[in-house]
Amino acid sequence: MHVLPNPELYMALVHFPVINKNGETIASAVTNLDLHDMARSCRTYGVRGLFVVTPLEDQKRLVERISGHWTAGLGARHNPDRKEAFSLIRLSHDLEEAVLAVEKIHGQQPIVVVTTAKFSENAISHEALREILAGGQPCLLVFGTAWGLAESLLLSADKVLEPVRGTASYNHLSVRSAAAILLDRLVGHGLEGR
What we know:
Layout: E1 9-14, E2 18-19, E3 25-26, H1 32-44, E4 49-53, H2 57-71, H3 74-78, H4 80-86, E5 89-92, H5 95-106, E6 111-115, H6 126-134, E7 139-144, H7 151-156, E8 159-161, H8 175-187
Parallel strand pairs: 1-4, 1-7, 4-5, 6-7, 6-8
Antiparallel strand pairs: 2-3
């Protein structure tokens, strides 16, 4: 197993359309903790950009305020490492805008891979996605907030990634934990030699 040199990997953290515990489509709130932890994971694993997807103007302003503090404000001077991580964050109105931004950078549309905690018969394995990334094609790995991505996004994606599974029947990781685990499996050194 080889370590991927500079994969063309991007991530999207979607706040709409996602579902609530009743299966209804909603827009979820941006959380400070998700931004901090996911940006730091992205920077650690060489992800090219983290798209925060929300159509809500007040949530966009919140992301801009938090990011601005760490990239240009007092936080940037106090903690340069956090500045480096937060510089990866980009706002998108919807997932299509994120896809177009990646396409503009690379001159080709990225493979859109959605994540879910639910089993899907057509899901690809972590190893299969690792091999796709090794081929050099840009990839947008999409995470949902709340209780997961709406069905419309799951159906419109190029691929569905198999879920992270622990050793217990309990399966309700935070999005930031699932993202960190998947990044290590997809582009980390941890699988070397297996």
